[in-house]
Design a protein that fits this description.
Bound molecules: adenosine-5'-diphosphate
Subcellular location: Cell membrane
Strand order of the largest sheet: 4-6-7-9-8
Structural class: alpha+beta
Protein name: histidine kinase
Number of strands: 9
Strand content: 25-35%
Order of helices and strands: EEHHEHEEHEEHHEEH
Helix content: 40-55%
Distance between the termini: 34 Å
Largest sheet: 5 strands, mixed
Shape: globular
Radius of gyration: 23 Å
């Protein structure tokens, strides 16, 4: 419900009353509003790299092209912006596929313990040496039925955030445990953290705590939204815990048995 208030007052005279209008925002309206917001966000996100590219291309045309120092720098910027747009469009396509009702996950039997080690090892090879990894991974095989590629993507998105927002010398701690009929994975970092009031919003499409900073480090603002869609489709849960300035932990819980689609 949305409330709006109008004060009844003649010129500077006494306040005679207040009119309160309560609007019942129906679910349909809410969906419609979210859709409009989404389209506006997408347009903005695409426009930003395009306008940057236009100004660098104009500068090249206006003479920077024959400047041996400037030309490669400017071309580099346009290339980075192109890469960003490709990432953005790839993420958007993926979300749009997942929004589609007839979208199917490709369930297969996967040993989660092996899978998480593979993903962590890949990051270990390419990460900044100043960040260290610590692992507390369930030490028996953990067979589950999941869409392997999609779960890899969820882990990729969470781990790359942990690395992006970690300071030099920071630690990233991976934990995986079996809890009843679920697997609980958590990825903890010692990075900038997230203010309490934003903790649930970070799973919304295009939501970023610090827009400028996220763009600077190449984020699309869609990584966690995709992770949430995938985890939900597996009938799992994803949530964040954080202490601002101290670090963040992203938790994922996946059922070891049934998934919504399979049970349906
Ligand atoms: P982005 O591409 O901006 O990283 P995400 O959907 O992956 O988009 O994350 C949304 C926002 O959540 C980020 O912009 C950032 O503000 C916040 N966030 C996500 N992970 C972390 C983390 N590990 N530490 C601090 N902030 C984070």
């Amino acid at each position: 419900i949305r409330a709006s208030f109008s004060v009844i007052q003649k010129d500077d005279g006494p306040v005679n009353g207040v009119i309160t209008v309560l609007h019942d925002i129906t679910e349909q309206e809410q969906i419609e509003r979210e859709r409009r917001e989404f389209v506006s966000n997408v347009s903005h996100e695409l426009r930003t790299p395009l306008t940057t590219m236009r100004s660098y291309l104009e500068a090249l045309q206006d003479g920077a092209m024959s400047d041996e120092q400037l030309a490669p720098k400017f071309l580099n910027v346009t290339q980075q912006e192109t890469e960003r747009m490709i990432r953005l469009v790839t993420d958007l396509l993926q979300l749009s596929k997942m929004d589609n009702k007839d979208y199917n996950l490709n369930f297969q039997k996967v040993n989660l313990r092996e899978l998480i080690h593979q993903v962590i090892d890949r990051f270990e090879m390419s990460k900044n040496e100043k960040i260290t990894f610590e692992k507390y991974i369930y030490d028996k095989p953990l067979p589950v039925r999941v869409d392997r590629d999609k779960i890899i993507q969820v882990l990729d998105n969470i781990i790359s955030n942990a690395l992006k927002y970690s300071p030099d010398g920071g630690k990233v701690i991976f934990t995986m445990n079996k809890e009843g009929n679920s697997v609980h994975i958590s990825i903890k970092d010692e990075g900038v953290g997230i203010p309490k009031q934003n903790l649930t919003k970070i799973f919304d499409r295009f939501y970023r705590v610090d827009k400028a900073r996220s763009r600077e480090i190449g984020g699309t603002g869609l990584g966690l939204a995709i992770a949430k869609e995938v985890v939900n489709a597996h009938n799992g849960e994803i949530w964040a815990e954080s202490e601002y300035g101290k670090g963040t932990t992203i938790h994922v819980k996946l059922p070891t048995h049934q998934t919504r689609e399979e049970s349906a």
